[in-house]
Amino acid sequence: MFQLRPCPPIVLWGRNVRQENPVEQGRAREAAAVQPSASIRVPRQAAQGQQDRARGEHTHSEPPAPRIVQRHSVRGQILDALRAALVDGDMVPGEVYSAPVLGERFGVSATPVREAMQQLAVEGAVEVVPNRGFRVAERSARELAELAEVRALIEVPVMLRLARTVPVARWAELRPLAEATVAAAAVGDRAAYAECDRAFHRAVLALAGNQQIVAVADDLHRRSQWPLVSAPAPRRADLLADAAEHTALLEALMAQDLAVVQSLVREHFTGSVG
């Protein structure tokens, strides 16, 4: 089974998650009582208005746009780590995983783990097993073929339209994303490759200006990356071949070669490792 390296910061399947110390948490809560929290929305003008009112001045300014401060999300990092574990095959299809047990291995409470697993259940990666935990979904070759067919129905027409309208310079801007997939494939990092693969496809589809297409296609893409039951893990050579198709597709899009674009996209989905 998977291994975790319990050193601060804790490494979850290659992902860093900040370890929460109970003493530090208590100090943080005390500090939050006297200082603005770093995880809340702080309207600048609202704060100024409070100061003005304290001086007896009256303000009539419109509600300001809040300044959003990013929150460190343990749940989000665990979710990323679990997704990577699914792609890597560290989480085995058919096996049941307990949130409390995983929480102990992660060095966090069961709550963020359970929340992350519930998100994976919504995505279809796992299913809830009452009083036991979450079972990793078992996918068949038929399901993978159906996902490839739906992805092709969405992405092929969009890419053909983009090939006719998008300037070469815009396609050239995506070259670093295609090269990133090659770099991840070269070291055999399946989880990193999966992320780079989706990033490249998202960037291409985003040129259509339809965020709904991007969201739906990305969800289908993510689901297509989960391993099949009893299937061997993709080899480094498989990843390199898949990555090469990204580069070839980009060249065909820049050349406005519609026939090659259509052929490459369909073949990419049919034999894709991600």
From TrEMBL:
Gene3D superfamilies registered for this protein in UniProt: GntR ligand-binding domain-like, Winged helix-like DNA-binding domain superfamily/Winged helix DNA-binding domain
Pfam families from the UniProt entry: FCD, GntR
Keyword Transcription in annotation: yes
Tree of life domain: Bacteria
Annotated SUPFAM superfamilies: GntR ligand-binding domain-like (SSF48008), Winged helix' DNA-binding domain (SSF46785)
SMART domains on file: FCD, HTH_GNTR
Designated name of the protein: GntR family transcriptional regulator
GO molecular function: DNA binding; DNA-binding transcription factor activity
Region annotation (Disordered) ranges: 21-67
Compositionally biased intervals (Basic and acidic residues): 52-61
InterPro entries listed in its UniProt record: GntR_C, TF_FadR/GntR_C, Tscrpt_reg_HTH_GntR, WH-like_DNA-bd_sf, WH_DNA-bd_sf
Every HTH gntR-type domain range: 72-139
Protein keywords: DNA-binding, Transcription, Transcription regulation
